[in-house]
Amino acid sequence: MHRCGAPREVLTPRLRLRVFRPRDAPAYARIRSDPEVMRHMPGGAAQAAAEAPGLVARFIALWDEVGYGPSYGPWAMEDRATGALLGHAGLRLLAELGGETEVLYLLDRPAWGRGLATEAAMAARDAGLGACGLGRLVGYTAPENIASRRVLARIGMRAEPVPVQVFGLTAIRHVMP
């Protein structure tokens, strides 16, 4: 496994990307309970909301792993102006997929359409290629999720032509470089 020195907090013009805290779980569960937010994600919104506290704990643990752990993971995405939790963004090691590292993000519906996913994905890309020294990043999107496909294209990822089966879904795999 690859260890890296990804920053625990990153400031972008409009976002604070930081390690999750246990107290983020209720707001994160609310975001994940929105069927529209979870439309392209595995499982349903009710299941996703119920899993939120465990997921927050796992995201926190990823940053604190020692030894062979990656010492990076998804950040909590917070609005710098209001402090509101907007979702998550960052990097995730996919050991089950040969150890590749995924750029991922999930935003609360009121935050859609403002370029925040691109802003967060750029920060994740820069951490992966810079601080972590990774030579390759991937991203996965549902074929019909045009907005998410555009985000990955904007940060320089190239969509592969043949859909793949991953996480129990059919997805488009995006790669960089």
Keywords, separated by commas or semicolons:
five-stranded antiparallel sheet, 177 residues, Aminopeptidase, four-stranded antiparallel sheet
- The average pLDDT value, as a whole number, equals 92
Order of helices and strands: EEHHEEEHEHEEE
* Count of DSSP-assigned helices: 4
How helical, in percent, are the residues?
25-40%
The coarse overall form would be globular
CATH superfamily: Gcn5-related N-acetyltransferase (GNAT)
By secondary-structure content and strand pairing, the structural class works out as alpha+beta
Number of domains: 1
The CATH class: Alpha Beta
Characterize the largest beta sheet: strand count, sense, and whether it forms a barrel.
Answer: 5 strands, antiparallel
Number of strands: 9
The fold-level CATH name is Aminopeptidase
- The largest beta-sheet arranges its strands as 1-2-3-4-5
Folded structure, characterized:
This protein is an alpha+beta fold. The protein has a single domain, classed as Aminopeptidase (3-Layer(aba) Sandwich), CATH 3.40.630. It is built from four helices and nine strands. It has helices at 25-32, 45-64, 116-131, 146-154, and strands at residues 9-11, 15-18, 74-79, 85-94, 100-107, 137-141, 158-159, 164-166, 169-176. The strands form two sheets. A five-stranded antiparallel β-sheet has the order 1-2-3-4-5, with helices on both faces. Strands 6, 7, 8 and 9 form a four-stranded antiparallel β-sheet that branches. Helix 1 (25-32) crosses helix 2. The mean pLDDT is 92.
